[in-house]
Amino acid sequence: MDSDAMNASLDELTEKNFAGFVSWLARHDTEYHFGTTAETVRKTLFDLRDQLDREPIVVDKETVLDREWVTDLLRSWPASWAQSARDLATVSEGGIPQSERKSASQNQATTFGFEDPRGRFNSLQYNAVMCNDGTGGRDFEKMWADKQARTRTYPATGGHLEFGIYCAGWPWPAQEWKLAKGKSPLQLSGHTGEDTTPYSWAVAMRDTVGGTLLTIEDDVHGSLSSLPCAAKAVDFFRTGRTTGGTCPGAQ
């Protein structure tokens, strides 16, 4: 599990999705006023981001509308394009989005998640898995340099540090897994558009260990449990039969 490669694959995916976002905005120029062509929209959004980089808008002690705020919205997926467009348009026109007025995110510095409440899942558990198994760097300066390099490669959405960033200073070496193809039946599933566990990861796992990949045609992480084709995946646990092909996703 290479956290550096995982971050890079997310950047590649969100950059491709951004192209769809700017085309969508161009088709909705009468509502959001970013431009009537993808090229114009792209420049307008980049100009807005540069402006907030120079002069961030401080909403309160915990909420700042800055370069990172814009980049997060540029990473939006189709289900949230309309909300992201409204927020970006509001700031472009000199206002503060209502969502940012209502609640401020509270980002507090943590140390590996040791102080998190113990429960079914918490930061300590997550970081232990990612850092003990991950082959990414342990050096923050290298992670930051990689982030900057990916920002240059993917100028709209590059710079993810979702995976591995908490491993900076992790005191134990990675326990790298040696995966090989098996002979037993294995049911895999993946969603074509999501960015939590990108579809390319499911394909890579199938190619590495074998198995049958069921493809869900949506961008919603975890939607399979609420879809009719969930029965196909669950049937594997009853019969051992695997199912490939595609099935409609969440609308």
TrEMBL record:
Pfam families: Abhydrolase_4 (PF08386). Residues 92-112 are annotated as: Disordered. InterPro entries: Pept_S33_TAP-like_C (IPR013595). Residues 166-242 form the Peptidase S33 tripeptidyl aminopeptidase-like C-terminal domain. This is Peptidase S33 tripeptidyl aminopeptidase-like C-terminal domain-containing protein. It comes from Streptomyces demainii.
